[in-house]
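Board notes (copied after class):
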Amino acid sequence: MAKTIQAIRGMNDCLPSQTSIWQFIEANIRQVVANYGYQEIRTPIVESTDLFKRSIGEVTDIVEKEMYSFDDRNGDSLTLRPEGTACCVRAGNEHGLLYNQQQRLWYMGPMFRHERPQKGRYRQFHQFGVEAYGLEGPDIDVEMILIGARLWKAFGIEGQVELQINSLGSAEARAKYKAVLVEFLQQHHDKLDEDSQRRLLTNPLRVLDSKNPDVQSIVKNAPKLIDHLDEESQQHFSLLCERLDNLGIEYTVNPSLVRGLDYYNRTVFEWVTTLLGAQGTVCAGGRYDGLVEQLGGKSSPAVGFAMGLERLVLLVESLNLPNIHKQGVDIYLMAMGESAQRSLANIAEAVRNTNPSLRVQQHCGAGNFKKQMKKALASKAKLALIVGDDELENNTVTVKFLAEDKEQINLEMAKLASLGSMI
């Protein structure tokens, strides 16, 4: 017997029993971004490796350790995309969408990072993201946060996530702050873990984001970036907070909040939860005003966020919300006798034509009434439609209620449209 082939570690199947919650989340995402006037953009899964080196930064964990990169037959280095923002900017520059224009875009699809798989964090994961270009005021930052808040309400989890915000300031202010931070951290070098010691030399802001409790006890006494902001960034952040207050959006200013990618500036934010253990960030984003120019385009302000759908699925599942796990079909059609079997597909199509929103399944293959009824019950259908010689002769179907204690009825074919009111 041949050896069974299994999925690659960290790249998981989504089975029919799981897809309903994914469809629930995806449908709400599409509805909400449409409410805000955003347009979908779809980019390739494979991009030039240089795209991510130039955008994410060569001394980040993603580029150094996690990217799936390979040389193609022409010797070009290609990478399975680890995130979506750089891809959006590349597409916008290439197709002339960004220069001196305003764009509101969104994307959804698989991303790839070679890291240790754990619950809610996989090597192939799915990400939804929103990007806005050509808008530099705090009002678009607020809109990003409002989109997140509306999504949580649509998912039924608004009470389970908390908004944290911070400002990284300008590149110049951040460079000055890094020098102050490094000087402080060097005084505690021996107490930093190996990862933080490495980051101290390459990306010291990431030390602030360490999850190591010992490092956090040091960091809490470190100089705060928010105290070293340039005047324009201070004003931008103050206006952001003022508008969130006016909207009644609750938030916490977290001075240790930084983003792991090099391209962020000014506003950064995360929506976090306590229900997923260590993987508590549900959504993260901020401004990246220099990225368009960094990737070869004309300078354009930009802001956005992204969320991992696997983590979001876990959060929604943990709450056991009603009406999400809608499995099975609405109507199951059964045939008694050869004539009825020959006519069943026609009747099934008539039901679908008159009730396009219903899920209709036709019994295929022979079988007595008991066998077919067993299949109907297994389908979790609300109704069974039974067609036999009598029904064919009278141009009717028998409607049997499977989810309610009601007597079956005969229904004229001309009234099939009324089936929707019986579900």
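Comment from the instructor: The radius of gyration is 28 Å. The CA atoms of residues 163 and 250 lie 7 Å apart.
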